[in-house]
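FW: tagging you since you asked about this chain on Friday. Here's the raw sequence from the shared folder, copied in full. Didn't touch anything.
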Amino acid sequence: MTDTTFTGLLYVLAFLAGALVLSISPLIIAFLLAPRRVRMLFQKAHRSIECGMEPIGPAWIRFGVVYYLYALIFVAFSVDVLFLFPVAAVYKSTGPSWLVLGEVVLFVAILALVVVYAWKKGVFTWKSKLMSPRG
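HL: got it, structure written out here
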């Protein structure tokens, strides 16, 4: 093995060891610092805990479809915006041309059509429903 290959191998092993230490140490620290037997004292060993708070109501509740539509539209637009950043960075280095500008405008126009379609379908209007105390 040459000297540069050995040095490269040492770098890989050092990064692997660092990754293992940084990924396992929070688990060990949480195990050492976590309180023990507190849930058994209050007869709560088999109850679910949400962020350390007492649960209110049943765990199985219905969410409106509008919530999921908001989430899907958010994910779609965040991915599209992440696509536009590298395009904007490369646009300057390739030299401004009408073809590249037309492709970017077409992409943004398709996104605008998605917003118009969702608006026409009523996705952006949140309909609140009055619910009985029992759900």
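FW: The chain has four helices and no strands.
HL: agreed, and Residues 64 and 127 are 9 Å apart (CA to CA).
FW: great, closing this out.
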